[in-house]
Amino acid sequence: MRIKSMPTQPIAGQRPGTSGLRAKVKVFQQPHYLANFVQSVFDVIGDISGQTLVLGGDGRYFNREAIQIIIKMAAANGFAKVLVGQGGILSTPAASCVIRKYQAFGGLILSASHNPAGPDADFGIKYNIGNGGPAPEQVTEAIFKRTTEITAYKIVEADDIHLDEIGQFSMGDMQVQVIDAVADYAALMQGIFDFDAIRGLLAQDFSFVFDAMHAVTGPYATTILEDMLGAPKGTVINGEPKEDFGGGHPDPNLTYAHELVDILYGDDAPDFGAASDGDGDRNMILGNHFFVTPSDSLAVMAANATLVPAYQDGIAGVARSMPTSGAVDRVAEALGIDCYETPTGWKFFGSLMDAGKVTLCGEESFGTGSDHVREKDGLWAVLFWLNILAVRQESVESILADHWVKYGRNFYSRHDYEAVDSAAATQVLQHVRDQFESLKGQTLAGRVVKLCDDFAYTDPIDGSISTNQGVRVLFEDGSRIIFRLSGTGTSGATIRIYLESYEQDTTKHDLDAQVALADMIDAAHQISKLPEFTGRDKPTVIT
Ligand code: VG1
Ligand code: CO
Fold first, then answer.
1. Any catalytic annotation for residue 91?
2. How remote is the CA of residue 489 from the centroid of ligand 1, in Å?
3. For the segment 214-270, what is each residue's pLDDT rounded down to a tens digit?
4. Claim to verify: residue 308 and residue 331 sit in the same structural domain
5. Which residue, of 152, 181, 210, is where some domain finishes?
6. Measuring CA to CA, how many Å separate 336 from each of 85, 185, 318, 332, 333?
7. Nearest ligand to the CA atom of 363
8. 290 and 430 share a domain?
9. Whose CB has fewer CB within 10 Å in the chain, the N or C terminal residue?
C-alpha cells in the first residue's frame, strides 16, 4: 500500500479552544485543513507505532468524510489498529469509555458539541489521551505549535472503509475494527446503576420523556432507556440522529430544548424530563414544571451518591469549574470530602480523577460526570437521577426543596451574549479589569466587593498553571459576578456573565433566580458597561 507524503503549509487559526478545534464546515473542507491538524496531533503525542486509535463522532455533516481521511492517515502514520464506531458514530462519553476499555493510545472525537450542524454550520475535532479524557493544555498547545510549522502529512492511497458494517478490515498493515457504538457504553452504565430499581420505577405510575434532539444520544438512549430498562416506546423523542440535527440547536437548556420544556411545563406534564446535546456529554434535568440548574444537579448527586451502587461506599471528592455555583461545596463540606475549583473545560478534571482525588465533577454548562470515564456524560447523569428517584420515591421538586432546606440555596444564572463583536467583547472584560483596585470595598447590589481578579489555576497533581480563566468580582457574602469569553464559538465572540448569590432563608427559596439575582444583573452591566460597548441590552440565552 502506497504511503503518500502530501506537501502542505501551515493554516492559521488551528489552536484548540475549550474543547478542541471548532470551525465552520466550509473551513474544515478547505484543502489540507483537517489533515494538517490530524498530522499535527500524530506528530506530537508520542510513539504511536503499533498502537490503537479510537475514532468516532457525533454524526454531524462531514463526519463520514473526516473519518475516512483520518483512517487513511492513521494507517500511514503507523497505528496498528483503529477502533471506529459503526457508521462513524461515537458519543463523546462512549469514545472515552472505549479508549479506556481497550487501553487505546488515544482517540479522535469529531464533534462541535451542541453547535448547529450542516454544510453551513460547524464541525470540530478533539484529541483525547489514553485515560479517555481531553488532552491537557500542554498537549493542545504542542498540537497548535505543530500546526504552525507543518510542511507535509502522510496518507495512504486506499479505498474507503465500509463504516456501516460491524467487523474487521485491513488497510495495509493496519486493522480497522468497526464496533457497535452503543454496546460497551451500555454495559458500563449497567455496571454503575441499579437497573432493577430503575426498571421498577419506570414500571410504576411514572412518566418520563427524554429528548435526544436528533443528535448522537438517540441510539444510546433508545437502547438503554427503552430496550434495557423497559421505558415505554416513545419515551425517547427526536431519537433519530440527523446530519444537521434536524436543523436544530442541540444544546439542552431552557432556550434551545424548548420542545421538551413545553412538555414539562404543559398540562399533564410528565414526572421527569431530560435532554442531551449534540455529542451526548451534556444533560438537562427537569421535573414536572421544574428546572434543576446544573450546579444544583451536581450538588444533589453528590449528596445522594451512596444511593447508586457504584458510589455506595462514598465519593472521594468533588470538583467543579470556577463559574459553577458553590452548591456542591456545601455538600462536600458536610460530607467531609475535598472540593476542587478548576478552570472551565473538562480537560482540567482528568488529573484529579486519575489521582483518585475526585469521583464526581460538574460544570454549570449542563455537564456532569464521574470517574467512570474522563468526559462529562449526559445519559449517565439521567440514569443517576432515575436511580435517585427510584430509591427516594419523591418528585424532583421535593428533592430540591429538601436539599435547599439542608444546605441553603445558591441562586445562579448565566447570561450569554452570543456573536458579539470581538473587539467590543475584549473591551468589556478589560473595563472590569481596569477597576480591580477601585471596586474593592465598594458596595454594589447591597454587597461589599471583597476581591477582583483574573482566575488562575495550578493543577494540584502536575503543577501546570493556567491563567486568565475568567474575570471574577467576589463579594464578602460569597456572592459572585464572573465575566468570561467563550472558547467554543466559531463566529465573533460570546460573553458569558455568571451570577451567583447564596440564600439560607427557606422562605425565599421559591423565588425565581432572575428575580433573586436582579440587582446582581444590574451591577454586572454597570461595572462592565456591556450595553455601551456591545450595543446589546439583553442576553441571547439565559440559563
Ligand atoms: C463551553 C462551556 C464549558 C464546556 C465547553 C465544552 O465552553 O462553558 O463549560 O466545558 O463548552 O462543552 P465555553 O468556552 O464556550 O464557555 V461541549 O458539550 O460544547 O463539548
Ligand atoms: Co457536548
1. no
2. 9
3. 999 999 999 999 999 999 999 999 999 999 999 989 999 999 999 999 999 999 999
4. yes
5. 181
6. 41, 32, 11, 6, 5
7. 1
8. no
9. N
**Looking at the structure, do residues 431 and 386 belong to the same domain, yes or no?**
no
Q: Determine whether the shortest distance from the Cβ of 418 to ligand 1 is under 6 A.
A: no
134 alpha carbon, closest ligand: 1
Distance set, CA 151 to CA 11, 43, 512 (Å): 10, 12, 56
Task: Give the CATH number of the domain where residue 249 resides.
Answer: 3.40.120.10
Q: Which domain holds residue 457?
A: 409-542
Same domain, yes or no: 249 and 309:
yes
Structure confidence by residue, pLDDT tens digits, 491-508: 889 999 999 999 888 888
Closest CA to 243 of 61, 52, 490, 427: 61
Q: Is 414 in the pocket of ligand 1 (CB under 6 A)?
A: no
Final residue belonging to a domain, choices 357, 381, 407: 407
Mutation probe of ligand 1 site: the residue of 15, 18, 495 with most atoms within 8 A of C-beta: 18
Query: For 338-358, what is the mean pLDDT?
Result: 96
Residue 504 pLDDT:
86
Q: Cα separation of 451 and 21, whole Å?
A: 34
Closest ligand, as measured to the CA of 126:
1
Q: Do 177 and 203 reside in the same domain of the chain? A: no
Instruction: Name which of 477, 480, 476 is nearest 527 in CA terms.
Output: 480
Residue 231 per-residue DSSP state: P
User: What is the spatial distance between Cα 49 and Cα 75, in angstroms, rounded to a whole number?
Assistant: 10
Strands 272-276 and 208-211: what pairing? parallel
Confidence of residue 67 (pLDDT cuts 50, 70, 90): very high
Catalytic hit among 91, 96, 111, 113? 113
pLDDT at 433: 95
Distance (angstroms) between ligand 2 centre and the Cα of 278 equals: 6
What's the rounded Cα separation, in Å, for the pair 196 and 201?
9
Q: Residue 190's CB: how many other CB atoms inside 10 A? A: 14
Tell how far the Cα of 18 is from the centroid of ligand 1, in angstroms.
Answer: 6
pTM above 0.90, yes or no: yes
Q: Is 377 in the pocket of ligand 1 (CB under 6 A)?
A: no
User: 422 with 398, same domain?
Assistant: no
> Does ligand 1 come within 6 angstroms of the Cβ of 498?
no
Tens-place pLDDT, residues 89-124: 999 999 999 999 999 999 999 999 999 999 999 999
Q: Is the CB of 217 under 6 A from ligand 1?
A: no
Are residues 348 and 413 located together in one domain of the fold?
A: no
Look up residue 390 and give its amino acid.
Answer: A
Within this chain, do residues 160 and 203 fall inside the same structural domain, yes or no?
no
Residues 57/67, Cβ–Cβ less than 8 Å:
yes
Beta-bridge partners for 178: 84, 167
- Structurally, the chain folds into a number of domains equal to 3
